[in-house]
Amino acid sequence: xxxxxSTESGLLKGINFATSSSHNCGDIDTAQRSKRIVRMxxxxxxxxxxxxDGFLTSYDVRTSxxxxxxxxxxxxxxxVKGLATMDNQKVxxxxxxxxxxVWDTSGAQCQTFNANANVSRMRQxxxxxxxxxxxxxxxxxxxxxxxxxxxxxxxxxxxxxxxLSLRVPVWIRDIAFLDENSISTCTAYGQIRAYDxxxxxxxxxxxxxxxxxxxxxxxxxxGNNQVVAGCTRAKLGLFDxxxxx
Length: 245
Fold this sequence. Notes:
It contains no helices and 22 strands. It is mainly beta. It is globular.
């Protein structure tokens, strides 16, 4: 299989790009929307899944076996907003209420801290596994080093008021690490922003909007200078952020 996707009905599907085919991973008769997958990540060769009911499960791609692991507190109703692994031994979760937790694979909680309420997304840096970023509705970008005991190493500051001197609302929908020190965000209000956490500037160094989009939903890095972002109008854009302002 080349990729795995989850469906609203609760199914996990494996996709083969070469044959344009898909395969149901699990029993279709037991699939439930209340237990649909809301987040996925890899733990070695095991696919780790956060379900809408707050439980974590694992799917072994070699044996095609599913295993129920443990429940994430406050993770019910699809409220797990971030899932990552560290050194193939620890699991990192974040729920909408803001609780970021580190677990061992048996479900014992090793560390926890609060990233403030209304989190929409937590992302792990691919360049440094102990670094995660969070953001959400009226909860601006924060970058955390899990080795520093749950203290943010960077806290973003909102952009200046608009031309009517009105405060610009904050709602981060997704986050992408461009490199170890550069982070991009997309918002529910159609903005794409980039931050340099080394520069000492808390406001974004890049801030622009896409005319075809009023609300972004998802983002991914594409190299060090480009991001891919999708919006509620079912459009996907590739943006080169060099030279943007």
